Amino acid sequence: MVSTKIKNYSLILLLILAIGSFFRLWQLETIPPGLWSDEAINANQAISSPGKIFYPENQGREGLFMNLIHLSFSVLGISIFSFRIVPAILGILTILGLYLLAKELFKNEHIALLSSFFLATSFWHINFSRIGFRAILVPFILVFAFYFLFLGFRKKSFWPFLASGIFFGLGFYTYIAFRVAVIILIFVLIFWWFIYKKQGSQKKYFQFTIPCLFLIFLIALPICFYFLQNPSDFISRAEGVSVFAQDSNFPLSQFKAFFISAGKHLAMFNIYGDPNWRHNFSGAPELFWPIGILFLIGLFLSIKKIFTKKSPALSYWTLVVWFLVMLLPGVLSYEGLPHSLRVIGVIPVVYIFAGIGGVFIFEKIKKFLKSPKLFYLVLIIFLVFITFSQFHKYFISWGQNEKVKEAFSQDLVEMGNYLKDTPLEIKKYVIIYGGDMPVETIKFILETSKEKHEVNYILPTEISSIKIEKETIILPMEKDEELLYELWQKFPQGEIQSKNRFWVYKINY
């Protein structure tokens, strides 16, 4: 009987992973449309300068993600698919990691399976699993780091602590928001100290935790040395958007900014979400409304158990602390609020709360319906409803939205493909607007070509440097009528060609 249950749970988990894989892999090269410049620079630096601990360009980025991309390019070749397959795989593995973590925390298959299903079909997590942002590493690292830590403490086994130390140490090479996870680690270690002390196992506690902490320190040491040598890079990305940058009427303005940010981030789950089309269906709550209700129920039940149990369960404490701590990277900022990317570390715990709420509600429904067949029919209908609703939201309502194409610079991808398809003998100029970042998209698309295209990148003020010695195309990155008129005056033999999302000035020689 037990083996049959285990087999059934395993099959359900495999089905959940299959659903999660489909959501993260289907049409990966075309949805999201385009390629945002922040993605493109990650890809370009994975090609040109792999192996770095930290990349100071674009306000600074930890290097693990770029090195994983480089590995993918080495195996699969350079393409948008081989670039985005990295976050997709990380997202799929996070679903498995969340199942393992939830099961370890609660010894409850139903909470674990429901939590992982909600994550598998989550628009929030699906979206970031298909975008070339390094932040997707944070939930992946967190679920496995804490799964192995809790597993080690429960089994009193040494190897899970080593695995936890490796994951946690690698976390410092992922995304700036990961750094606050140290607070969660300290809390968990203190709580387990009291548990081991009560058991009279203080010696074992130190035998496990000291090697784990040393391994974390050892793995994180290279990036620590880098920041000691380059202290400005340590806070370069966070400094410009921090609430502490609000210095007018100091410190009242900082407190005001903090509470406004906190309020918006707490409301993002059920009321008003991230307005950025790259991060979300602009303004929509981060959680689909049924999941949002279950999340609130699970959060309430967890807090209630903390304050009503004579010996509060560490699992519930961990969830609540994790939730509050991983909100801090968003709460401590004042730009683009609420910001679903900066608080990406709360994703695992949010869906565990939803899993707790879901099991609670479905147990009530099961008692009310009395008929097991009717209950399972209701459950299946609910799960199918969630799956198809999230499919429609991501792949149709969001994925085919013109605003999303604009947000991901679909026009720049089309420019890159146009240049890639242009014969090598034609001389090419690209006129850059908006600084160096947008052109990264065009450069990456050209890298996907089997042939080496020579392109001259110039500013609008440098068109006098253009020399016509053979057939030439001039591609402005923006539809600038004044510039085209200036080109026509300088090269009257040319003609304007209107493409789908851009213009080209072609000169026959």
Automatic annotation (TrEMBL):
It is found in: Cell membrane. It comes from Candidatus Nealsonbacteria bacterium CG11_big_fil_rev_8_21_14_0_20_35_11. It holds the Pfam family PMT_2. Residues 68-198 form the Glycosyltransferase RgtA/B/C/D-like domain. Its main location: membrane. One of its GO terms (cellular component) is plasma membrane. One of its GO terms (biological process) is lipopolysaccharide biosynthetic process. This is Glycosyltransferase RgtA/B/C/D-like domain-containing protein. One of its GO terms (molecular function) is pentosyltransferase activity. Keywords: Cell membrane, Glycosyltransferase, Membrane, Transferase, Transmembrane, Transmembrane helix. It is a multi-pass membrane protein. The chain crosses the membrane at residues 9-26, 73-99, 133-151, 180-196, 208-228, 287-307, 314-334, 340-362, 374-391. Signal peptide: none annotated. InterPro entries: LipidA_mod_glycosyltrf_83 (IPR050297), RgtA/B/C-like (IPR038731).
